[in-house]
Amino acid sequence: MDIIKELKWRGAINQMSDEEGLRRALSDKSVGLYCGVDPTGDSLHIGHLIPFMMLKRFQMAGHRAHILIGGGTGSIGDPSGKKAERVLQTMEQVHHNERCQTEQMQKLFGKDNITVVNNYDWLSKLDLLGFLRDYGKLFNINTMLNKEVISSRLEVGISFTEFTYQILQSLDFYHLYKHNDVQLQIGGADQWGNITAGIDMIHKLEGNKAQVFALTVPLMLKADGTKFGKTAGGAVWLDAKKTTPYEFYQFWLNQDDRDVIKYLKFFTFLDQTEIAELAEKVKTQPEKREAQRRLAEEVTEFVHGKEAVKQAERISKALFSGDVKQLTAVEIEQGFKKMPTVVVTAAKKNIVDWLVETEIEKSKRQAREDITNGAIYINGERTQDLEFEIDPTASFDGKFVIVRRGKKKYFLAEVK
């Protein structure tokens, strides 16, 4: 497998140092490579998937992938892509985030051809004088100032702490080159300056014959020019507690026709033939949204597993048809997370009184009218009896009552 050719077809390469040398290295042996992430939060989001999907492809091609959790650099703050100084986290928070991110990475990458390292293990052992004498001397201030990651911050200012981040990231590359036989670092487009600084450091310490390479992925933009991965509700997280698998599935399902093939190439492991077939269907049968459905299935399974895909599809089908009674309480919690929600007691009550007390209906007159007209559904069942008694504990493990008014207006009553 020519992985460079494959990555180019997928539109996954932005910049690459010494392409010819990297191709030779990849064809000669199993190459060690790494991608890093700083534990600035307790969960990764889909923006993090962009470089890590590339790392996963190298892993699947038989190369030795390394994930670097930046316990050390994360305590400092990466200036890349930031217009102002980061607020420093407590070390307790950093270590908590490290553990959470490590668990997520282990789930995504499994155990074959993968090593998870934490740069806190070596950066925390540096002493100031040793750092300045052994490594600070290797970096020319003028060169650092010309790197985009630094130059973009000069007008608003940058602290010495964040200014040194580039040196620390270079140290990571050097450490992994020496101790883990890592030759390639990959990252986002904004990491090019930091990665090439690491190559320069290795060449100064080990000589120009040292075989080390840089590879970055493009900035991911949507067809409308906005940045990929952001929604009206904020980031799309990989943690199921922050973004439910159903919400995650829906995010991919709702992608624009203009973007879906690009995302299939980048975020799935489907081959060229299948993606070409889906591209044709986008052109000829866009209303069926088969490409979007395939994208949602593939990425959701990769992040959350097959059962999460089945759950998301059941919830989607139930909401579309109105037949919600077959859903589990867990699925209700996912699918109705953003629906109008009220809190009710477990007490049984007449339907008219209950609808008014929950403010689902504005008045008893309106409630009676909607009930008799067949516009009210309780837990998926049309209810036209004005004497009907609602039992909040009767369905969904006694946790929820689902009310549908009309064709699409849903309300969730949470039993407390």
TrEMBL record:
GO terms for cellular component: cytosol. Its EC number is 6.1.1.1. L-tyrosine binds at residues 34, 165, 169. The keyword DNA-binding does not apply. Residues 331-412 form the Tyrosine--tRNA ligase SYY-like C-terminal domain. GO terms for biological process: tyrosyl-tRNA aminoacylation. InterPro entries: aa-tRNA-synth_I_CS, aa-tRNA-synth_Ic, Rossmann-like_a/b/a_fold, S4_RNA-bd_sf, SYY-like_C, Tyr-tRNA-ligase, Tyr-tRNA-ligase_bac-type, Tyr-tRNA-ligase_bac_1. It is found in: Cytoplasm. ATP binds at residue 230. SUPFAM superfamilies: Alpha-L RNA-binding motif (SSF55174), Nucleotidylyl transferase (SSF52374). Pfam families: SYY_C-terminal, tRNA-synt_1b. Keywords: Aminoacyl-tRNA synthetase, ATP-binding, Cytoplasm, Ligase, Nucleotide-binding, Protein biosynthesis, RNA-binding. GO terms for molecular function: ATP binding; RNA binding; tyrosine-tRNA ligase activity. PROSITE patterns: AA_TRNA_LIGASE_I, S4. The keyword Cytoplasm applies. It is an enzyme of class 6 (ligase). It catalyses: tRNA(Tyr) + L-tyrosine + ATP = L-tyrosyl-tRNA(Tyr) + AMP + diphosphate + H(+). A motif ('HIGH' region) lies at residues 39-48. A motif ('KMSKS' region) lies at residues 227-231. Belongs to the class-I aminoacyl-tRNA synthetase family. TyrS type 1 subfamily. Catalyzes the attachment of tyrosine to tRNA(Tyr) in a two-step reaction: tyrosine is first activated by ATP to form Tyr-AMP and then transferred to the acceptor end of tRNA(Tyr). Homodimer. This is Tyrosine--tRNA ligase. It comes from Liquorilactobacillus nagelii.
